[in-house]
Design brief:
Elements lengths: L1 H24 L1 E7 L2 E10 L2 E3 L2 H7 L3 E5 L4 E5 L2 E8 L2 E3 L6 E12 L5 E9 L5 E8 L7 E4 L3 E5 L3 E10 L5 E10 L2
Antiparallel strand pairs: 1-2, 2-3, 4-5, 6-7, 6-8, 8-11, 8-12, 9-10, 9-13, 13-14
Length: 185
């Protein structure tokens, strides 16, 4: 009985002290970008909000680079426009249950970093992604155009997403840099 009397107050003090420490260490905050909730991804410490850089960069369709030697993070946001072409005519929405042969024209400018590869995909309403075209980038330019190969695709019902990704010259990770939505009507 005597041990219980001594141990119980000690446990309460330890538990209370750890709770006070946790409360002062950082308050978790919810992160919402463009109306999409990402959960409790940030923390406030001494009145300053800290957010995960990768989440913010990805939501802004940017390329992120980490320089280990300089302990430096760089974020690059190129202007990337996607134009969908069927028989050299632009299109946006598609009739339901229709098969199309189309190209994707990618127009890039303000690219302030080197990339090694570019790819274009299409994602169906069930979030299944299919490659349209991928290519290594040999020339290092700030602005360029890229025309995908012709791609045959069967559209069902729902919202489809054509996406452009770039791979930084110093990374093996793909970064989403542009997205175009196709809705079936």
């Amino acid at each position: 009985m005597r041990k219980k009397v001594i141990i119980m107050p000690l446990l309460i003090c330890l538990w209370g002290g750890s709770m006070i420490y946790a409360a002062t260490e950082g308050q978790k905050i919810a992160l919402t970008i463009n109306g999409i909730g990402l959960g409790e991804r940030g923390v406030v410490v001494d009145g300053t909000a800290y957010l995960p850089v990768r989440d913010v960069a990805n939501s802004q369709q940017s390329i992120i680079q980490w320089d280990e030697s300089g302990k430096k993070i760089s974020i690059f946001k190129p202007n990337v426009h996607l134009i969908l072409l069927q028989d050299q005519k632009m299109f946006g929405n598609v009739d339901r249950n229709k098969q199309l042969n189309f190209h994707v024209l990618v127009q890039v400018d303000n690219l302030k970093t080197e990339i090694s590869d570019i790819k274009v995909t299409i994602t169906d309403p069930m979030n299944r992604e299919e490659l349209i075209h991928a290519k290594s980038v040999q020339e290092k330019k700030e602005d360029f155009w890229f025309l995908s190969k012709e791609h045959k695709y069967n559209f069902g019902v729902g919202v489809y997403k054509v996406r452009c990704y770039m791979k930084s010259g110093s990374s093996n990770e793909w970064s989403l840099v542009s997205e175009k939505q196709i809705t079936t009507i």
